Amino acid sequence: MRVLIIGASKGIGLETTRQVLDAGHHVRALARSAAAISISNSNLEKIRGDALKIEDVEAALVGVDVVIQTLGVGFGDLFRPVHLFSDATRVLIAAMRGHGVKRLICVTGFGAGDSSARISGLQRLPFQIVFGRAYRDKSLQERLIQESGLDWTIARPGVLTGGPRTGRYKILSDFSQWRNGIISRADVAEFLVRQIEDRTYIHQAPVLVN
Fold first, then answer.
1. In the structure, what pLDDT confidence band is assigned to residue 77 with cuts at 50, 70 and 90?
2. Between these two residues, 130 and 16, which has the higher pLDDT value?
3. Cβ-Cβ contacts under 8 Å for 122 (sequence gap 6 or more)
């Protein structure tokens, strides 16, 4: 499969790039700092581009089978209005429709969309103070994806760690099960890679925790 990873230069995106390559797929890595990706592989194509520019995204989509969107913002950005997630997703959906690419796998987080109702009372206020702006935009991002007509899967990880890939995380697909917890970026990446060919979670937004 030819997989486009948006936001591939660090965090979950970089780990996903590694694991997609290990699984034998071809990766097209789109990021503003794509040249800094410290992976050398004949199946890796690094493309410098901006997820907010339709011309960059359209060029990256040519010949692609699956898109994995792994955007993030810095800690300092959490205290300013956040529009990156929804703005980039609008651009991506329009480009995917134009190129006939149907499969979209996206990372948001526990607390986005209807999972916000499962945040505990003790966590709710600090979560809103620190993450509220970003997660309001992630909720809008999820809504845009859910209304897109694409074959989408949304992954909602809990608190991210730099721990190893274990394969022992929980995939909570029912509202009654949803809860916060921790999970390594490597385990989130494993889930994303599985979705390239597994259609079990199409049109679902499971929560991922250890």
1. confident
2. 16
3. none
Beta bridge partners of 175: none
Nearest residue to 68 (alpha-carbon basis) of 146, 110, 15, 144? 15
Measured between alpha carbons, how far is 113 from 119 in angstroms, rounded to an integer?
Answer: 11
Angstrom distance (rounded) from CA 210 to CA 35: 33
Does pTM surpass 0.85? yes
* CA–CA distance, 116 with 48 (Å, rounded to integer): 34
170-172 vs 207-209, strand pairing mode = antiparallel
d(C-alpha 105, C-alpha 8), whole Å: 14
List alpha helices for 41-103, DSSP H. 54-61, 84-99
Q: Read off the pLDDT of residues 143-163 as tens digits, 9 standing for 90 and up.
A: 999 999 999 999 999 999 999
Q: Which domain holds residue 91?
A: 2-209
Q: Which amino acid is at 183?
A: I
Bridge partners, residue 152, by sequence: 104
Q: Yes or no: say if 144 and 86 are a contact pair by the CB < 8 Å rule.
A: yes
| Number of structural domains found in the chain | 1
Q: The domain that contains 17 carries what CATH number?
A: 3.40.50.720
